[in-house]
Every structure is written in structure tokens, then in C-alpha cells.
Design brief:
single chain, 160 residues, alpha+beta, Beta-Lactamase
């Protein structure tokens, strides 16, 4: 049981936050990457899979919504979408059950640290080729408080 990565997508289908976790045995030290794969094909493919499965499940079963799906016996993808169309995805091991409350809690950290921050842009803007528009780094979430709080919370879970 483990957590592999955490993604946030905005309402324009852009990956605005990506946290890869590297599991180590040295007293909780985490050497994972933050926002290094936001424009990669893997984040775009992940969003495409979620979008397609969400559309398909809505057409087949109107009462249920997509909350998780698995790929083989390796990974489980947990999905939650806010009212403002931000999509939160946590990739875990296959044997991890429902993570909806965890995703809601991660959304609360997002609201507290990012959305409530007056310096955060209203829209996360990208150029036509997928690169950041400015050098300040406002195109992705780079709020240290958000990164620290979400890391501490995820590492405190028994499945980490």
C-alpha cells in the first residue's frame, strides 16, 4: 500500500500541480518531484482517461459518479472534482480503498493555501505550446505552504 503521485487539473484541462512521491526508508525522507511533469504526455493522458471514463460512466449510470479506477493489478486512480471544476487525482497501489475524504481534505488545503491567496492568479495560463507564460511561476502551484501541508497530510496516512 502506497501513494505514488498527486495531480491537480484546472477547468481548462491543464495540470497545475503534480507531486511524485519517492518512497524511502530513511525516516520519512521524500525525494519526489514537484511540478516537473505538468506538461508531459503522461499528465495529458491521465486527464484524457479521466475525462473519457467520467463521460462514459455518466452515460451508463446516471446516479453514480467516477471516484476511482484501476489499471491491472498495479495502480488505482482516485478522482474527485470540485464545484469549481478543479480535478484532484491521487495514484496509489492497487489495494488502497476509497480515498474520497482524503481528496476532499486536499481540496481544503488548496482553498486555504492557494485559492485564498491574493497573489495567486485567477486563471492558470499557458502558451500555445504548453509552456509557462511568465518566469514568475504563476502558471503552476508553487506555494510552499500548500506543498508542505499536503506532503505532511499524505505522509501521515497509514497507506503512505
Amino acid at each position: 500500500m502506497t501513494i505514488y503521485s498527486f495531480f491537480i487539473f484546472d477547468r481548462h484541462c491543464n495540470c497545475i500541480y503534480n507531486r511524485e512521491f519517492t518512497q524511502t526508508s530513511a525516516a520519512g525522507v521524500n525525494n519526489g518531484l514537484i511540478n516537473k511533469n505538468n506538461t508531459s504526455h503522461s499528465s495529458k493522458l491521465l486527464f484524457g482517461i479521466i475525462y473519457s471514463l467520467k463521460s462514459l460512466s455518466a452515460k451508463l449510470i446516471s446516479e453514480n459518479e467516477l471516484t476511482s479506477f484501476t489499471l491491472g493489478q498495479s495502480f488505482r486512480f482516485h478522482f474527485w472534482e470540485s464545484v469549481t471544476s478543479y480535478k484532484f487525482v491521487v495514484v496509489t497501489g492497487y489495494d488502497v480503498d476509497d480515498m474520497q475524504q482524503v481528496l476532499v481534505r486536499l481540496h481544503q488545503y488548496f482553498v486555504d493555501c492557494v485559492a485564498s491567496n491574493g497573489l495567486t492568479p485567477v486563471e492558470f495560463k499557458w502558451s500555445a505550446n504548453g509552456e509557462k507564460l511568465d518566469n514568475v511561476g504563476y502558471s503552476v502551484i508553487c506555494n510552499n505552504s500548500f506543498v508542505e501541508e499536503t506532503d505532511q497530510y499524505l505522509q501521515s496516512l497509514s497507506i503512505y
